[in-house]
Amino acid sequence: MAILLIAEHDNSTLSDQTARALNAAGRIGGEIDILVAGKAAGSVAEAAARLHGVRRVLLVEGDALAHQLAENVSDLIVSLSANYDTIIAAATTNGKNILPRVAALLDVMQVSEIIEVVAPDTFRRPIYAGNAIQTLQALDATKVITVRTASFSPVESTNSPAPIETTAHAGTGRGLSSFIGNALSAGDRPELSSAKIIVSGGRALGSREKFEAVILPVADKLGAAVGASRAAVDAGYAPNDWQVGQTGKIVAPDLYVACGISGAIQHLAGMKDSRVIVAINKDEEAPIFQIADYGLVGDIFDVLPELERQL
Ligand code: FAD
After folding, report:
1. 117: domain CATH number?
2. Which of 56-60, 256-260, 268-272 shows the lowest mean pLDDT across its residues?
3. What pLDDT shows up at residue 193?
4. Best substitution site from 266, 278, 306 to test ligand 1's pocket, by max atoms within 8 Å of Cβ?
5. Helices (H), the chain
6. Are residues 161 and 37 in the same domain?
């Protein structure tokens, strides 16, 4: 039994999401190879080779793979798939872009966003925005799986790296898609998906100016990433990529501070696995208090500036 794990990277850095997905792969059992598909991604392959429990790293580089377009990467994965029973990736933007295409090309179902491995063919995954947990058995010869990485801790690195097999990718891709550009938000704050602390703001903030004046100073004092509810994002108080929840990012930091967020199930679906949840809300009946470890009933416009001063 062999598993192919697709590395999550930007050609220079291996994301911590890969080490978490590797933990899930290890629970399935069998030899694990990591595929690094990209361009000039040698440092990524070296980092992947140092992860504990990896048999070998396949580094495939070429122009067509430089931006990890789903069409090109999925063709590569399918060409390797005969050697593997399981193809697995973190349920990141890339993983969710590439793996459904792999599943379709292999004519198998995809098992999406697993949170637990029960047996090599049996998995648990949240459904209905996390309100129910489904246990499913996958009978396909090749299993295509994405992993909700918040549920798995990253595996450790080792001092004896696995071998790296480098292959040049000569293909030019099918030409079904082309890379236009990356619109990345620049900033010194930690990335939301891997942050240890997140301070999130909701509709209560009332405007972008107030969001920035009240949430950001506290986040910066804590060295935290900034999150937002969908209501705050839809109202333009916070950018899209800060959204936490069912249709945003799934996070599980050590500390999640929800400020002026009611606690709708779609928001909880994205943050309820956080280790410690702090809620600040002026309505003591707000549902967020039902899952909060610490709740403070108060006005965020009083509490947060005071909290910042105390910090
Ligand atoms: P509200 O529900 O309006 O809550 C605002 C809270 O602020 C209230 O509890 C209020 O008491 C409190 N408040 C007001 N003023 C103050 C003050 N001065 N001080 C302290 N507290 C104050 N939502 C997400 O967040 N993420 C998602 O990914 C997501 N996906 C969705 C997908 C679908 C298909 C659907 C239907 C909905 C989705 N939603 C999502 C929306 C979700 O249902 C809620 O509408 C949203 O989360 C509400 O955001 P909120 O808590 O900021 O706003």
Report:
1. 3.40.50.620
2. 268-272
3. 83
4. 266
5. 16-28, 42-49, 70-80, 93-106, 208-222, 230-234, 265-271, 288-291, 300-310
6. yes
Which atom of ligand 1 approaches the CA of 245 most closely? 28
CATH of the domain at 276: 3.40.50.1220
Domain holding 105, by residue range, is: 2-168
How many angstroms does the Cα of residue 280 sit away from the middle of ligand 1? Answer: 13
Give the number of the atom of ligand 1 that is nearest the alpha carbon of residue 248: 28
Pairing between strand 197-201 and 164-168?
A: unpaired
pLDDT digits (tens, 9 = 90+) for 31-63: 999 999 999 999 999 999 999 999 999 999 999
CA 209 – ligand 1 centroid, Å: 18
200 Cβ below 6 A of ligand 1:
no
Please give the C-alpha separations between residue 74 and each of 102, 174, 262, in angstroms, as whole numbers.
Answer: 5, 11, 40
> With bands split at pLDDT 50, 70 and 90, how would you rate the model's confidence at 142?
very high
pLDDT digits (tens, 9 = 90+) for 172-215: 888 889 999 987 766 788 888 889 999 999 999 999 999 999 99
Q: Which of 106, 135, 168 is the last residue of a domain?
A: 168
Say if 187 falls within a structural domain: no
